[in-house]
Design brief:
mainly alpha; elongated; Arc Repressor Mutant, subunit A; disordered N terminus
Length: 207
């Protein structure tokens, strides 16, 4: 986010985290209803029951709000994935399960799908050329997941593990942005089969 959430309090004793969360919740509602272009700071402020100055002070411009909402939604998904990852006992199952889960999660994510259908050029920008921070966050989260799995003995310790994770994240990213292709990817079974054949060897060359 352009201005990270904090737990400090303002002069009235209201949590900054609470105010900013309310603004981002309001922005998410407005973006899903009207899209990026038609949503104004005034719309967001009204939905959040704050004044427009508070939006500018807490988050920033409308572009800053878009980036903050996008980053928060990405963060929510990676937190879900981190919790989900603990339920696997083998490297193959972990990679296959995570791949299927993340692709399905974004395929059905209301905010992502709404934006891609309403304003694909703006949404794609947030997920590609303007999406460096969310992508870096995702890679870091996946590195942490793999590190935890490595300590559990599921993966070998590799000196280039971070690079391998980033390569896999880039592959997953491309499938989310462009789901149409010749590789069958409609069902969980197809997603998992792809992951076992092509992604597992990248993360676990000893398999």
């Amino acid at each position: 986010m352009s201005k990270g959430l904090t737990t400090a309090t303002n002069d009235s004793g209201t949590s900054t985290d609470s105010v900013e969360s309310r603004i981002l919740d309001a922005a998410l509602v407005q973006f899903e209803k009207q899209g990026f272009k038609k949503t104004t700071i005034e719309d967001i402020a009204r939905q959040a029951s704050v004044d427009r100055v508070t939006v500018y002070r807490r988050i920033g411009s409308r572009d800053d709000v878009v980036k903050a909402v996008t980053a928060r939604e990405v963060q929510r998904v990676v937190v879900e994935l981190a919790e989900f990852a603990g339920g696997f006992d083998t490297a193959d199952d972990l990679v296959a399960g995570l791949f299927a889960a993340v692709v399905n999660r974004w395929r059905t994510h209301p905010f992502a799908q709404r934006m891609l259908s309403m304003e694909p050029e703006r949404a794609l920008g947030q997920l590609t050329t303007e999406g460096g921070a969310p992508f870096t966050m995702t890679v870091a989260a996946m590195v942490a997941i793999l590190h935890d799995a490595t300590t559990r003995g599921l993966f070998p310790e590799l000196p280039d593990q971070v690079a391998r994770v980033e390569i896999v994240c880039r592959i997953v990213h491309s499938f989310i942005l462009q789901p149409v292709g010749t590789i069958p990817m409609d069902s969980d079974a197809e997603l998992e089969a792809f992951a076992r054949r092509y992604l597992v060897p990248i993360l676990n060359p000893e398999s």
